[in-house]
Design goal:
A: about 325 residues, alpha+beta, four-stranded antiparallel sheet, 12 strands, B: about 210 residues, mainly alpha, globular
Chain lengths: ~325, ~210
């Protein structure tokens, strides 16, 4: 598979190494026949497989070489999306097919993601229309879809290392192995877990009362996130929930049924640590129902907090808590 | 914090969204968090539009592609996997495919492609950061592109921005396919080596091992 071959192309005799097409393959610059031939090579060649991800990331940087153009007005560009803000959420659904029809996809580390036969190629454009990006797993109408009776499988783990700036802990993934691995059971387990997790979140959103913004809600349920319940110790009908994302980089406090405030008054969030001054996470107001969804600051790691509380204070804020604890959390 | 009744203005993302990670924003956009989508657009809309404009060569078409890319985030039709690369490179992939697909679907745009400038000679200097400080990346990529020979860069740009195969590039340039193939291969090898520090990959070590 690694032996050089001679190829006649446009009356030009080319003596080529089978590795030589790697760069053009990743760039998406091979014709259909060459692409199929190189793909077969790639599945067997560790050397090319090891380099392909790096080439893919290299090519992914090319647009940074362009002079940036003035950004179109976001309000206009996003108008279509905003118009749908009141519609029901579109949740990516897992494919459902009878077990007897469940396709078993064989893959290798150089194997294909669902919507493309070239895992690293950025220019995967079949003659009949646009193809999907190498990360995409679902197509838009007009783009090539799965053949009848077959469904997309979740993409296999990649050799690409997690990007250093990615704050989310890496999802559980299996290291690539050779020879080929049958993915069906893993893929379906992952799909089921995804649907269940999405279902829980959607159910939470559907519950009555205020809720955190979806991004914070989801982030708080990912590794590094926490959701703390604040009991209504000084306001028996009230409750609070503190959604914390990424070890405290983001947080939102959600309260309901607190007493509406008089003018000049605010609610204030406090963090108590042993041997440390009491620190505030910010102030907030509530609506007529006593509800609030407010971004807050987490001034110290939560595992050091011995208590978190909400009090009513004079506006704009108080340096120390003076009111009774209305909402409380303790470890 | 502010009065919750005044939050979530459609005009600008919340402070929380502005500071959120790419992954959180994308998740939020998929679940129709308007703030998340707006923050994503503020962060990457310029890059997406710039790439789209480079490919289609028409402002309105580029805006159409940009809208389509962010709508896909909104609809949750695209699956981003952070293990496979950064969010901007993922958005670039979608943008390029949508832009080239749009061109291929509009035969009347063929002359536009031919007349669109395919070289950004002298335009690779880093731009002023506009709240999305990607100037180090821009500087590195600009430097890497400057190290390519003119023919190497022309061949790579025709393939990447023009969506052409190397055979089509050879036809367009009137060059032998073998020469174009060599230019693309050697050019990308050089880019990969020069940009290795940006890729978190020890290219020299890997190449030596192979």
């Amino acid at each position: 598979v690694n032996e050089p071959t001679a190829r006649l192309q446009d009356d030009e005799l080319l003596v080529v190494s089978p590795h030589d097409d790697l760069e053009a393959y990743v760039l998406g610059a091979l014709g259909a026949d060459e692409r199929a031939s190189f793909k077969a090579h790639l599945e067997m060649c560790d050397e090319c497989g090891a380099k392909a991800d790096t080439y893919g990331r290299t090519i992914g940087l090319l647009p940074y070489g362009l002079r940036r153009q003035p950004v179109p007005d976001g309000a206009r560009v996003l108008a279509r999306a905003r118009a749908e803000v009141n519609g029901p959420p579109t949740v990516p659904a897992a494919p459902v097919v009878p077990a007897s029809e469940t396709p078993t996809i064989e893959w290798s580390p150089g194997g294909p993601p669902p919507a493309s036969d070239r895992p690293w190629a950025v220019g995967d454009l079949p003659p009949d229309g646009p193809a999907n990006d190498r990360h995409e797993a679902v197509t838009l109408s007009g783009a090539p879809g799965p053949p009848p009776g077959q469904v997309w499988e979740p993409a296999p783990p990649s050799r690409v290392q997690p990007i250093p700036s990615a704050p989310l802990p890496p999802a559980t993934s299996q290291p690539p192995q050779r020879p080929r691995i049958r993915l069906a059971s893993i893929a379906w387990a992952a799909a089921l877990a995804f649907v269940l997790s999405v279902g829980l979140i959607v159910t939470a959103w559907g519950a009555t009362g205020p809720h955190a913004s979806p991004s914070v809600e989801i982030g708080s349920r990912l590794p590094g996130g926490r959701i703390l319940s604040l009991a209504g110790t000084g306001a028996p009908t009230a409750r609070g929930r503190l959604f914390v994302v990424g070890e405290g980089r983001q947080a939102e406090l959600v309260t309901d049924s607190l007493r509406p405030l008089a003018p000049g008054r605010v609610y204030q969030l406090w963090f108590f640590e042993s041997g440390q001054p009491i620190r505030t996470g910010g102030t907030f107001l509530v609506n007529q129902q006593g509800d609030a969804v407010a971004p807050v600051t987490i001034p110290a790691p939560l595992d050091r907090a011995r208590a978190i509380a909400v009090t009513e204070e004079a506006a704009p804020s108080s340096p120390q808590p003076t009111g009774a604890h209305l909402l409380d959390w303790t470890p | 914090m502010s009065d919750p009744s005044t939050e979530s203005s459609a005009a600008a993302p919340s402070e929380t969204a502005v500071e959120a990670s790419d992954e959180i924003l994308l998740l939020g956009a998929r679940f129709r968090d308007e703030d998340a989508l707006t923050a994503l657009y503020d962060r990457y809309g310029g890059l997406v539009f710039t790439l789209a404009l480079r490919i289609v060569g028409d402002h309105d078409l580029a805006e159409e592609v940009t809208q389509d890319v962010f709508l896909r985030c909104w609809h949750g039709l695209a699956q981003y996997d952070s293990l496979r690369g950064t969010l901007p490179s993922w958005l670039f992939g979608i943008t390029r495919n949508r832009a080239i697909g749009l061109l291929r679907g509009r035969q009347d745009q063929a002359p536009l492609r031919e007349h669109a400038p395919l070289s950004d000679e002298g335009t690779h200097e880093p731009s002023t950061p506009d709240g999305n400080d990607d100037s180090p990346v821009r500087a590195a990529v600009g430097q890497a592109l400057a190290e390519l020979s003119g023919p190497q860069r022309e061949a790579i740009e025709l393939a990447y921005y023009g969506g052409l195969t190397q055979t089509e590039v050879a036809d367009q340039l009137g060059e032998p396919p073998g020469a174009v193939k060599t230019r693309i291969r050697d050019g990308l090898r050089r880019l990969r080596r020069v940009l290795a520090p940006m890729l978190g990959d020890n290219v020299a070590e890997r190449d030596a091992a192979s």
